[in-house]
Amino acid sequence: MLFLNCEHKLVFLHHSDMGDNVTTITEFLLLGFPLGPRIQVFLFGLFSLFYVLTLLGNGVILGLISLDSRLHTPMYFFLSHLAVVDIAYACNTVPQMLVNLLDPAKPISFAGCMMQTFLYLTFAITECLLLVVMSYDRYVAICRPLRYTVVMSWRFCISLAVTSWAIGVFLALIHLVLLLPLPLCKPQKINHFFCEIMAVLKLACADTFINENMVLAGAISVLVGPLSSIIVSYMCIFCAILRIQPGEGQRKAFSTCSSHLCVVGLFYGTAMIMYVGPKYGNPKEQKKYLLLFHSLFNPMLNPLIYSLRNSEVRNSLKRVLGIERAL
Question: Which of 64, 195, 242, 262 meets the CB 3.0–4.6 Å disulfide criterion with 113?
């Protein structure tokens, strides 16, 4: 196998007993969902609606946090970063999926596919770490309330957010660097609705043992470890909440923590099944649909969970809309 760069095109040379078979790979075909044309048009409309709701919901969260000074706290600072990740996450995968639903034969360029893989990994890893940071913020607020302002200083909060993004970019870059040199075989058909890394690796003509084990190791490091720390944090949090005198304080603490736990459960649950569960390297059709939930529904549900279960967000929305004055 030889890898050449000729006239800005990615060219892979495949040698066989029949002679040299030169294959120019400049694009891929995403197979998406094997459904009939009418169902695909229906899904286009449905997923377009979900996409708009995702952008609108997370945009409202960002707007409220920006406009309402009462939400200028570490908790909502991290929530704003989560909203940014969810918007970027959806924008990275959903538009191409919508295009393929209308025109299944429309390919995606090699560069676009690699960029989609890189951004998907970046946003997924960053969200994992942000959820851990948010659980730590709740731990300090409930279990160490007298030291909260000292521990969760703005400098420390900014450092945690920047570190989460930096680790996300760094780990995604490692996977991309290992992926790019691999020679790819024909046909260039990816059995997915976007360039998911395990689906792309299936096209490789070379041994992908290192790549697959790096994906597994990365998944364990950003899923199993952080999830364990979240569980420990919330065990301490619930013990502290139970010691609070029943009333408004206890109800507010339960409401805030339950919102975060819902988001954690949705995100980590689907991600663990995808990349840490059995046969992670041989995704079946059901895992493709599970990743659809992970990529499309999670970003849409996150702002709904926080707005419906969080009284501060609901009250902020009322203040911004002037409902309280009208009442």
Answer: 195
Average pLDDT over residues 269-277: 81
Cα–Cα distance measured from residue 324 to residue 327, given in angstroms and rounded to the nearest whole number? 5
CA–CA distance, 279 with 175 (Å, rounded to integer): 19
Six-digit token pair at 247?
């009333």
Tell me how far apart the alpha carbons of residues 179 and 238 are, in angstroms, rounded to a whole number.
Answer: 43
Coil, helix or strand for 119? helix
Do residues 44 and 101 make contact, with C-beta atoms less than 8 angstroms apart? yes
Residues in CB range of 233: below 8 A, 6 or more apart: 135, 136, 138, 139
pLDDT tens-digit series, residues 45-64: 999 999 999 999 999 999 99
Other Cβ atoms within 10 Å of 221 Cβ, number: 14
- Report in angstroms the alpha-carbon separations of 42 from 90, 96, 98, 102: 19, 16, 11, 10
The residue among 191, 189, 197 whose CA lies nearest residue 274 is 197
